[in-house]
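Predict the 3D structure for this chain.
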Amino acid sequence: MEIKPLKDLKLYGFNNLTKTLSFNMYDICYAKSTEHRQAYIEYIDDEYNSDRLARILTDVADIVGARILNIAKQDYDPQGASVTMLISEEQEEHPLSKTEPANLTGPLPTTVVAHLDKSHITVHTYPESHPNKGISTFRADIDVSTCGKISPLTTLNYLVTTFSPDIAIIDYRVRGFTRDLNGKKFFIDHKISSIQNYLSEEQNELYQMIDVNVYQENIFHTKMILKDFDLDNYLFGMAKKELPPKEKKKIKQRLIKEMAEIYHGKNIPKV
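Done. Predicted structure below.
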């Protein structure tokens, strides 16, 4: 869906509105043995290493129309990565633009940060596993915050498609105000009723979604969870054809419970 600005809005000076898209994305799997759980963590660490995260941020910068000035990145031993990317909306030549990406330590393990003048993009990843139940979870926290006319909503479909989460918890908020030529304050400069409106038809078909919006505060919240469940997509180091029926049923129940608890944000007691 196209981001539609308010009609005939002529501003006095710079657009001071800050638009922030924040979401947690979760990948859930079942890894039966200690070796499988460790292998899953290693797989995630390789799949989302600093090079891959930097490429994702590069695409995000292209989508919002920003220019990359510098990249600093570091992969950690035994696991984790950090990337810092400096970007700008400015089109004039910048001395940093001629330098090669630096191999420097970033702020946090498995972290990506980008700055768009007064704006920023961050990605933090959190792989973890349950010590007894075999459930392993990969969480990616992403914030895309922009100032001015650029809206981070343009990056939504790309990021959801790139991470292909089982669950996504998304927030969009517009902060601050800007003024028109007469000094009148505007607390939002575009029309929006739901984050869902900015997701593609394909994403809308894949996910079940609910909204919790506070329109008067320009706060929009959407939760997404995959509609279809194929056990083979959630097993790491094994296939469902290798499992007896009772074990398949038990594993599926554990996975569904884990996903429901994450989606609803609360523990579900045993029945």
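Residues 90-109 have pLDDT under 50 and may be disordered.
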